[in-house]
Amino acid sequence: MEPSTGTSARQVAGYPPAPERPGEAAGLAGSRKGGSVMDYAERLRRLVINDACFAGAGTSGTEAESRDLDPKTLALVRLAALVAVGGAVPSYGAQADAAVSAGATAAEIVDVLVGVIPVVGLPAVVATAPKLALALGYDTAAALEL
């Protein structure tokens, strides 16, 4: 829905008008695929149609990998996603390690938990906190005994 001023949400956000067909957005920085540039519209289209080749590539770290997020931000986003889906303890360990390796601090990782409270709710974050604490090497049981 467009604001009453006639300006679209895309323009307000700083995006160019949507291309008529995926891939028509000339001059947009995009993802490289086989030497050609795949713009955001094409990547979005492939996600919308559940392109198995595209989606499956993300698990091997190739085509579906993020192109515009730096490794630290991507690792923090993945931690937030784990909170949203109620990830298992080993998943938190792997993603916390990835975040730290990419330059994130423990404080930034905990800020992810605080930042997702309005989206996932406090109970989900409370359930996640011990898993993430374990991943960060923080003994919550010992801390609670004090």
Q: Topology, please?
A:
Elements: H1 9-12, E1 31-33, E2 36-38, H2 40-48, H3 52-60, H4 71-85, H5 89-101, H6 106-120, H7 122-135, H8 140-145
Antiparallel strand pairs: 1-2
Helix pairs in contact: 4-5, 4-6, 5-7, 6-7
Verbal overview:
- The protein is mainly alpha-helical and 146 residues long.
- It has 2 domains: 9-60, no CATH class; 71-145.
- It has helices spanning 9-12, 40-48, 52-60, 71-85, 89-101, 106-120, 122-135, 140-145; strands at 31-33, 36-38.
- It has a two-stranded antiparallel ribbon.
- A hairpin with a 2-residue loop joins strand 1 and strand 2.
- The chain starts with 8 loop residues before the first helix and ends with a helix.
- The model is unreliable at 21-36 (pLDDT under 50).
What key phrases describe this protein's structure?
8 helices, 2 domains, single chain, 4% strand, 146 residues, two-stranded antiparallel sheet, mainly alpha
List the strand order in the largest sheet.
1-2
The residue-averaged pLDDT reads 76
* Count of the separate structural domains: 2
- Please estimate the helix content: 55-70%
Kindly estimate the percentage of residues that lie in beta strands according to DSSP: under 5%
The largest sheet, given as strand count, sense and whether it forms a barrel, is: 2 strands, antiparallel
Q: First CA to last CA: what distance?
A: 54 Å
Q: What's the assembly state of these chains?
A: single chain
Low-confidence stretches are: 21-36
Radius of gyration: 19 Å
What is the ordering of alpha helices and beta strands? HEEHHHHHHH
Category by helix and strand content: mainly alpha
